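Page 42, continued from yesterday. The earlier attempt failed because a stray header line got pasted into the input along with the sequence. Redoing it now with the clean sequence only.
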Amino acid sequence: MEPTADKPGKPSANAGTERFSFIGVTTSKSAIMRVFPAWAEHLGLGDVVVHGYDLPLHASPERYREVVEVLRSSPLELGGLVTTHKIDLFTACRDMFDYVDPYAELCGEVSCLSKRDGLFWAHAKDPISSGRALDEFVEAGYWGSSGAEALLFGAGGSNLAISLHLMTGRPPEDRPQRIVVVNRSPGRLESMRSVHQRLTTDVKVEYVHNADPRENDELLRQLPAGSLVVNGTGMGKDSPGSPITDDAIFPERALVWELNYRGELDFLHQAERQQKARGLAVEDGWRYFIHGWACVVEEVFDVAMTPQVVRDLSRLALVVRSG
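This time it went through. Structure tokens are written below.
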């Protein structure tokens, strides 16, 4: 297993320095590697570095356990963020955590690892961070007044979290009338369905097993105006392509959310080409990125993420990103 800097259990160039870890696929390409030092200085976190561990998609349980054991046992490891591997890592390492928060139990995933009073904690922060990001561009009362629906491409951890917010995060009168979730493998759909069945909600969800982009085009065509369309597949970053074809037509005034902010971003560009003609509101994953990391920093370092603090972190991140 090759992390971005050194192998688990081996001393790094920063031996003796506390570390905030990032478990992903191509962590060195993430903006957080440049952003975190600025955040750490602004928040007064002291001498701490961000450290990436790269794992292939759907790595073996042994690889997940190897990395998690390093984070659990090393006093220099303060905790960190998990992306892409949230479900697989949790499944492989469930017995290694002293505490699992309610969202992690409900979703069967982990996005944040932290330590408290000598205990190793697992958290699922995505329902919180995705809700904060979504609420920034979906105004209060939108669902009740628009009659819009939601189409989620992908049934992984990010879209599971978004679906939870859509189904429970707002009052019943301000929720989408219907959510359609599409995934290439049936297993993730069934996992999502099992989570949804434990909720008290009146939102109807349809689970579609499909790998054909042309069928996804048809699902897109059937949506009411103003609907939310989310690419949570990882396509365009972790794997090539888009869940739809270039012939797909977005609903008028649709809210289009590409959860990635880097990579080829095919889906994002497909939406941008129709943005003016169809009156689309198009968002990339940058605010999702900010809120996702802010929630984890909040937990690991016990820092209150007030709206002003998040605005400050966003400003710093934009300076680093544009620089």
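Notes: The mean pLDDT is 92.
Reminder to self: strip header lines before submitting.
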